[in-house]
Amino acid sequence: MTEAADPHHDGSPLYVSEQHPAPGAVVAVRVRVPHAAGVGAVHVRTTPDGEQFFTTARRVHRGEHEDWWQAEITCHNPVTTYRFLLEGDADERAAGASGGRSGGSPPTVRAVRGEVGGRSPPTVGIPVAER
């Protein structure tokens, strides 16, 4: 069961712009983040050549209860894995219930995984068209 503050991403067209990208294609990936999650920045981590690469996501929609964040990634490999890194302040989430900050804690980072390729859940993904 997911909590109201849990972010969500899956391989459906709502979250991944191209379901069968060719190698080298740029694909938009999105994550839905409830305001209750306390997220202030989102980055997407890929490893196109074995070394990690970070792309800053941008907020593309701000709703009453949630934000949608999007980044574009290049599918360099037949299977391209990615991870959304959600940066926020856990104390800010607690402030809504207690009315104040408990102070001093560093921002927290949470991750949501995805994959462009041929695996099935728990890793979410889409197949890459072969040339």
What does this structure look like?
The chain is mostly beta strands and 131 residues long. The protein has a single domain (26-119), classed as Sandwich (Immunoglobulin-like), CATH 2.60.40. It has 1 helix and 8 strands; from the N terminus they run ββββββαββ. The protein has one helix at residues 90-98; strands at 26-34, 39-46, 53-56, 58-62, 66-74, 80-88, 108-116, 125-126. It has a 5-stranded mixed sheet with strand order 3-2-6-7-8, with no helix packed on it.
Offer a few descriptive terms:
mainly beta; 8 strands; 131 residues; 3-stranded antiparallel β-sheet; Immunoglobulin-like; globular
Compressed to H and E, one letter per element, the order equals: EEEEEEHEE
Q: Please state the average pLDDT score.
A: 75
Q: Any idea of the CATH topology?
A: Immunoglobulin-like
CATH class: Mainly Beta
Based on Cα principal axes, name the global outline: globular
Taking the sheet with the most strands, its summary is:
5 strands, mixed
Helix content class: under 10%
Number of helices: 1
CATH architecture: Sandwich
Low-confidence sequence ranges? 91-107, 119-131
Q: Please list the strands of the largest sheet in the order they lie side by side.
A: 3-2-6-7-8
Query: How many individual β-strands?
Result: 8
Specify the structural class: mainly beta
Radius of gyration: 16 Å
Strand content: 35-45%
What is the total number of structural domains? 1
Distance between the termini: 39 Å
Please provide a brief summary of the model.
With 131 residues, the protein is mostly beta strands. The protein has one helix at residues 90-98, and strands spanning 26-34, 39-46, 53-56, 58-62, 66-74, 80-88, 108-116, 125-126.
